[in-house]
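=== RUN LOG ===
request id: a7f3
mode: sequence -> structure
chains: 1
length: 183
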Amino acid sequence: MVRGQLVAVTHEAELIAVATVTDIKAIKPGTDELTAKIERRLLGHPSGDEVHFRGPHVLAAGERYVLFLRQRAGVWESVAPSGTIFPAKASDDRDYQAAIERLLAAFKQPDNAQAEGTWAALFPALRAANDTLRYNAALDLIAFIDAGHPPSAAQRQQIEQLLATKDLDPALRPILNAVMHRR
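=== RESULT ===
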């Protein structure tokens, strides 16, 4: 089953940054050693304004992404599953920052409040301009329901209102309909 990755990578990362990839060296099939210039830190504090890390062979030099990294044995590595990328134009920064900050805040809440905080983080991302952010937020809502956290009556009402809008991303409509029919 396809799952969104925004919640998982945000939870696992020690460093989350908006950065532009500046250099790529293949080190083995499917894995590259990359250098990226950090433009904005959303979590963590690497030294300097560059980060060197290992990541999947799907990132391109000159492109801007939200990177989700952790350090293992002194080496930064991507926590995103192979093939999962979060491209980011400058106009996407506010939506990514809001979703990630809300998720990080939800993770710090007591267990009984985390579900509400996670819903509150993901729902606004459904209206983000960035396709990848919108799609991952919607898929994460499905996974969240499947993990035993169904939407409240108020959250169902929000989803119904979103489904009623004419400008809703057509790719989200079947996912949100699935959210409404899951219990």
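=== NOTES ===
The longest helix spans residues 131-146.
The mean pLDDT is 91.
=== END ===
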